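Exam review. A common question shows you a sequence with its structure tokens and asks you to describe the fold in words. Practice with the pair below. Do the first one on your own.
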Amino acid sequence: MSLDRRALLAGAAATAALAAQRAQAVEPVYTPQLNFKGKSVLITGCSSGFGRIAAELLARQGAKVFATMRGLPRAEADSLRMMALKDRLDLHVIEIDVTSDQQVAEGVAQAELAAGGAIDVLVNNAGIGITSPVEVQDMEATRLMFETNVFGPHRMARAVLPGMRKKGAGQIIQISSQLGRVISPYSGHYSATKFALEAMSEQLAYELVPHKIDVSIIEPGGYPTKVWVNRNAYSQALKERAEAQHTDGYPQQVAAMGTEDGSGRSNDPADVAKAIAGLIALPPGTRPLRLPVAPGNKPQVPINEVTARVQVDWLGNSRAGPLVRAVHER
């Protein structure tokens, strides 16, 4: 199908109009003076990185924070508890492995009991990466990635939503990635899982409009966190069990598996924690669906703008139109 010049110009104009409209929307701003007293926040994946930093940041600004992680007891949990006790922070460590139905249900119930009701904010931060060519990525690795990066956030959302809907308020923040909108070769199924998370989150955002529950997706660039240590462990294990019939087509890429080093990255992981705080501080109904976070280039921005326009053009006048417009025309 061919597009004439008029159609292309019309599409460009519509994209520019939408970009201008979104530029006028309220943008999240972080300041140390933000006060989250009275807010309950549950964050997954708090043993290190974005989750650990966000848990401390929000607790220091008054929130009741439920910092969750898997594999308790562990030193990271003890460190968080000691800090909370020393600095009198309202921070509680709960064991949740997001791949476990039982731990998700029990952990959320424990948090809701301590909060005295529904959780105000869920931050789905737990995630993993495994680096390999797609052909080399076996079903064990594939299932682990989808269980953690897609099914985990789904489990968590299902666990908190009944309470949020009953309350008629709430917020879900999903930690995605630039690679949830653009694709880098040899990153295994990481992009596939983050693309799935993005789609699921956008659908949730539409469906939760009537319940006054906001969904936002943070899309970080590359940051020097412990995710690289874990990624190398998973990638090395995959390399050791991989079959030659799959690896022999990618000798250079397979040789590099398990040797990645993110320490050379200079971006401050606190950027993501501050973005989370900024989103929480915004008035309900004004929070953006997607928030790219990284200094410098953000390759997903034009993709986000075009897909928002397509959604509104396609569904804006349908029965789903009010839901779609409520999310994209903020």
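Now try the second one, then compare your answer with the model answer below.
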Amino acid sequence: MTDVRTVDLPGVTLAYRESGPAGGPPLVLLHALGERAADWDVVLPGLAPGHRVFALDLRGHGDSGRSGSYSLQAMRDDVLAFLDALGLERVDLVGHSMGGAVAFLLAQAAPERIDRLVLEDIPALYPRPASALPDEPDGSVHFDWAMVRAVRAQLDDPDPAWREGLARITARTLAVAGGPASHIPQERIAELARLIPDCRLVTVEAGHLVHGARPGEFVAVVAPFLAR
């Protein structure tokens, strides 16, 4: 059974989906840009059956609050505030794409809070040509376009300290790459795996949307890593 809840944090209200056995080790899931907590539903049954799972809508996404400012650092701080609000001292953390960037920023800033870390198709970040944004649709969407513009700008011109800080991550880490079908440079994911002290790299030939395109294969590599 999945419970949909909200928690009021400094500056924003976050929505999240909670499931799994009470008292199980906590697992936090962070979605990609433009996605939401329900994006993880396809892998939840097998991903971490012994964990208490918290899948978040990051600020500007899903049912979480829209705010006057957006950044990856603000999302990192939201997740840390979420852990504090729920009394989660130490967690396993899984992040996909943008959520992976938020996850590794948190693992740098508060290494004592993260036990195991899974980074899905997120590279060591370098400057890149500015991303072209799609036209805003006429209908409503489940994310804030101001957030998309702000986050895309950061991903296009990342702070070099984020890459340097990968060496400070103490969590046991699994990097899951999507292979050559992904638009993410796979050599940058390999670099990320080299820069994090205790990191293993696994490739699932699925493209960028690894857990969505190949849920069974994703579970097959991540579930044993998260298992106690």
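Model answer, second protein: The longest helix spans residues 72-86. The mean pLDDT is 95. Full marks require stating both points clearly.
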